Amino acid sequence: MKKSYVIFAAIGGLILIVFLMYYNAYSGAVSRQENLDEKWNNVQSAYQRRADLIPNLIKTVKGAAKNEKDILLQVTQARAGIVNAKTPEDLEIMGKKINTAINIMYEAYPQIKSTENFRDLQTQLEGTENRIKTARDEYNQATKEYNTHIRGFFNSMFINHETFPRKKGFSADKGAEKVPEADF
After folding, report:
1. Of 26, 51, 171, 173, which one has the fewest beta carbons inside 10 Å?
2. Which position has the higher pLDDT, 90 or 62?
3. Is residue 166 in some structural domain?
4. How far is CA 6 from the centre of its chain?
């Protein structure tokens, strides 16, 4: 009778070991698959951030540049009107603009800030693209870990490959290896 207990214990131990190996393989695959999905969602989130942020920044910079252009043009025109005035009658024609024009003559030109806005836009663009690259790199790393796990010797015997298919990492679009030309 003791011999049968030993056989049952050995069979039970073997079943337990197989179950634990299956449990470990399956749980590890689930964990890595969820991590992989999270990393891809982070890539998508970075894309959405770019889609939300960049057009608004461009509109803001364009608006600020147009506003500064208009102000600078008005200041220049006002100064040119005073310099070109030859008689008191010419100054009277300017009407209400005389006081403003005289004050402008003694002021410095407005400071141009649109160059700083363009620089800030470039910084935001670079930062956004760096976030996207980092998210893609993390996704590729998670893909590697997931694929390595599901393709391991013991894991490949226990894991259903329909439930846990092999994943592809991020790959660039065709032609992305070419340096884009800047068109100004």
Report:
1. 173
2. 62
3. no
4. 62
